Protein: Putative ABC transporter ATP-binding protein
Organism: Kineosphaera limosa NBRC 100340
Amino acid sequence: MIVRPDYLEIRGLTVTFDGFVAVDHVDLTVFQQDLRFLIGPNGAGKTTIIDALTGLVPATGYARYGATDLLGRKPHQIARLGIGRTFQTASVFTELTVLQNLDIAAGAGRSPLSLLRARRGVPPQVAEALETIGLSRASGQLAGSLSHGQKQWLEIGMLLVQNAKVMLLDEPVAGMSADEREQTGALLKSIATDRTVIIVEHDMDFLRAWADSVTVLHGGKVLSEGSVADVQADPKVQEVYLGSGHTAQVPAQAAEPVAHDAGPSTGEQHVLVTEGIR
Ligand SMILES: Nc1ncnc2c1ncn2[C@@H]1O[C@H](COP(=O)(O)OP(=O)(O)OP(=O)(O)O)[C@@H](O)[C@H]1O
């Protein structure tokens, strides 16, 4: 792998909410081509890290992409620097077509009214994004009529046409069918060839199938980092996921996270969690 200078480097990232330290001196380095998964129990600080990197919450420390500092900037400035994110719930314009959604994301130098008008030809970067996300044939379809998975792909396409070089994806496969998960894995792998991609995910099967590397968070701190095999073998990770039999939080199969206050785990949950990390 050729290491290029434009990679994401985070040092001592800290986010505090009214005295509560949600992210606690996190160090993270992610290179292009390294499909990095960020995992951890509910409340570990995963989404807050993405929020801090995209200017939604104030943070201290240091976060740099290439030569550019990210902290202390407004969300739109960070987006313009090529740092893109998705949310747990896809935010597409449901009343507009797939193509119109991509057009708006691309800006394309057109007025809002002209974006809504039919027009000849599709800008090359939009056509390329349509192809990459597998929605070329659905380009005229209303985004609201897409499947859950297709909406997530459209959102990724909207980042592609904005030339996002860093993509921070929050639970991209939650609620997807098995087929959609498979297609999403292949999509993420392909976009990570020349981008820095971080995926927050609870789905351990998906992680095992697609992660190049994993960072495990717990209580706002980095607990473990390495390959899937490395983190699975780490006793600290096993302790967090398996706990004393009362702290089970990450299901093996379910796409949705289990609530933090789900109460003592049952024997069945415990088996699921054991399968989840092994
Ligand atoms: N705006 C906020 N104000 C106060 N506390 C917050 C805020 N946002 C997050 N937190 C707290 O920070 C901690 C980390 O939350 P975060 O959403 O980052 O966790 P997470 O690892 O993404 O969890 P999940 O897997 O459940 O999404 C939690 O204790 C949460 O309650």
